[in-house]
Amino acid sequence: MKTARRFILAVSVLMVPNAVWAHHSYAMFDQTKKLTVQGTVRALEWANPHVWLWVDVSDGAGSTVSYGFESNAPSELARFFGWNKLSVIAGNKITVDYSPLKSGRNGGALRTVTFSDGRILKTPRSDPEYVTGPRGAAPDTGKEVK
Amino acid sequence: MRASVVTPAIRLMAFVCVGFTLNLAASGVRQSTSSSRGDTYASIATLPDWSGVWVIPFEAFARENARERVPGSSTGPTLTPEEATKRAALAQRILSGDGQSNVLCVPGGMPSVMRFAFGVEFLFTPGRVTMLLEQGPTIRRIYTDGRTHTSDPDLTYAGESIGHWEGETLVVDTTGITPRARITNGVYGSGKTRIVERIHLADRTHLQIDTVVEDPLILQAPWRHTRIYERSDSGWFERYCDNNRDGNDAEPDLTPPK
Lengths: 146, 258
Fold this sequence. Notes:
heterodimer, A: about 150 residues, alpha+beta, CATH 2.40.50.140, five-stranded mixed β-barrel, about 30% strand, B: 4 helices
């Protein structure tokens, strides 16, 4: 029993979200949550190691607060998700889906950008399972899983 | 939406970890009779056309990344028990906010740097193949002029690479890798890592690299894997960490740009 319990412990410890090993851990984001805000683009930082999108959001009392959203590298967004440095420009009215910072500060991991005309810009986190794999994945068989 | 052309068939091909067997000498570098190929500008013309930027499709990268986390995964390295415990402890520290993964943008090094969905370029000059890696600042210099490994090289992120041509395949033997380099996610080498890669075109637009990683102190068994890179027309992206807002792993810098 002791051995079995140890094994279970070992397995559960090893089953950490893979995103823990990204450039930084992503432990700062709650990737189980998806929040949405609407606002006006302040800036797109098309820079390395990661692209940041800055959005001014109305606080409902006549002023705005700035939100920061982190995504992947420019090369990844450009090659695989159709972005470029002018995909989002200051003044665009957008809706942002994101995984919030656990600290509760204004920002998070960028999931999807939706423009007022309905156009969508995706990122690797638009579908979190795309990056982190299905939760509770079955043991790997060594075969490609489609 | 995607800039690169990725068909389902290609995706299927990517990361098929076949239990391929490599007939590689366990130690030492075999001197091929064709090792002089590529030693002159004239003979470079006889080498295969590897021009362009080669990239692992993001989805293939992501799927390998996801599979690797499953204990006992046949696609990931088999760690020694001590190493497995260390890796798990590191993961827990990071998850609890006490520990940093790579917030300072240090290079991943060999062999980890080869696994990402970033560009790879090959340059042929006499007696040498050079690999430029977009993911980080690492440049790999692979000497094909018949030299052998030095006896006590300074340990580096790229390591010391000696190569030779076997037909259309470049066989590369790499040692001299710093223990600061990663084998993969959360796994660092011991300084005794040895990597043998067989690099060849699968077809005109796909480059295949069959890799065997050995590290007597970290890996329980050689880690064999195959990756497929696509020839991309998307150009090259510079990647210097000049806007790193993640210097503190627990919380990013949320100061908006001016």
